[in-house]
């Protein structure tokens, strides 16, 4: 009888029972078992294989040795696949998915010859408590929107609530399974230039998420690759945007000379790409931060004023849709950092308050602003007020995997230590220490490999 008419799926032609030399048949409901669904959700093919072998639909569990014989590997090799890190290479994932005939709609990657996967849309703000999980809910792109651009927007939205430590792997998976087959495989959908631009935008996003996860060397590599891809894609505003990202990363790595160089390169590139107020304001703000780090407060103040005036100009022409917006809250964030560096704490505090008023509660940028304000208040000799502000942060970031947030928590902890005789400060620091310890465990669990 034809297997299609019975609702069964063969793993291999002519294959039979578990104790034979061939894979068994499985019914459609086979894939609804909780252990298999959990393994698929965790994106770990080795765990999928283990759950497959132990499935109660088999007359008896399939041994590793038996499964190994079916695929031509040893029991030890299969054990390492099942118990080791997740398989990252697309060709191996496709081999296992094809062998086990896993339905395509359950996979986190695209099989050759299948229609493009739907685009990840915005996800709920609350993440699962622990462990790997599917970070995006799959829905259709709206209207005629480019699916890759829709994916970038969805990842950006999720990033604000979850942090780069959780989302980095999801972005890399999208690059490997959705972009790479179109760039280097036989899939000819779309024109080459727009595809390179999509690769540049997503690669830059991967750089930001690596940076947020505390992996600046990987971030630098991603930014440099994105720069080359943007050149091939001829998206000049995206090219400027990536240069600005490299400037920001250099500032974080305490390399103000390099940061200023990238910012000047971005300014020159923008002069050739066409005027855009948002990008111009971002460049001025980065130059201001670099001059502040070089102990040149006059230059820093002047450039911040230029950035503010520029951002008030009409927003035409529109920059690349792949470049993230630089708005009033973005400028206030750069200004607060710059003004803290030059010692203008009252002005820095005003900018931190401005960000808190502009960014939604529960987002990373809102938490950054609150911690910045707490640090400023402590420096001004108001540790009680700082603890009140920072307590709100601790209540809102339990599922936000951002190493940069954790660094700010460490900095605040160091600032508050001289005030431990203050009862309120002592109680807050005890809680802060516990939160930092919990976050260290979170970062280890979601470490970038």
UniProtKB/TrEMBL annotation:
InterPro entries: Cro/C1-type_HTH (IPR001387), Lambda_DNA-bd_dom_sf (IPR010982), TPR-like_helical_dom_sf (IPR011990). Residues 1-20 are annotated as: Disordered. GO terms for molecular function: DNA binding. This is Helix-turn-helix protein. The lineage of its organism: Bacteria, Bacillati, Actinomycetota, Actinomycetes, Mycobacteriales.
